[in-house]
Specification:
The chain is mostly helical. The chain has one domain. It is built from two helices and no strands. Helix 1 runs antiparallel to helix 2. The protein is rod-shaped, with a radius of gyration of 23 Å.
């Protein structure tokens, strides 16, 4: 998931979608079907991967990070209450 760190996930999504559109346009305008089909398959995979990462994986990572923070806070409060009881 950390392959392309130089540009943001949103920019990756748009880049891969533009590349897919250019591949499809190239298939329509040229006779080089095999390279264009392979390119379209690869850019389709990259576009879907970027979309899934943007819509699902990154928000899920943020939510997990927030839940871990809340869990650590609850553990600290629990330890503090046990220490106060002693």
């Amino acid at each position: 998931m950390n392959r392309f760190l130089a540009i943001s996930p949103q920019s990756q999504f748009w880049l891969f979608n533009v590349a897919l559109a250019l591949n499809i346009l190239g298939m329509v305008l040229t006779d080089m079907w095999l390279p264009m089909v392979v390119g379209a398959i690869v850019t389709t995979y990259l576009s879907v991967d970027a979309l899934v990462r943007l819509r699902y994986v990154l928000p899920m990572k943020k939510e997990i990070r927030d839940l871990r923070h809340e869990l650590e806070k609850a553990n600290r409060q629990l330890r503090a209450s046990y220490q106060n009881d002693d």
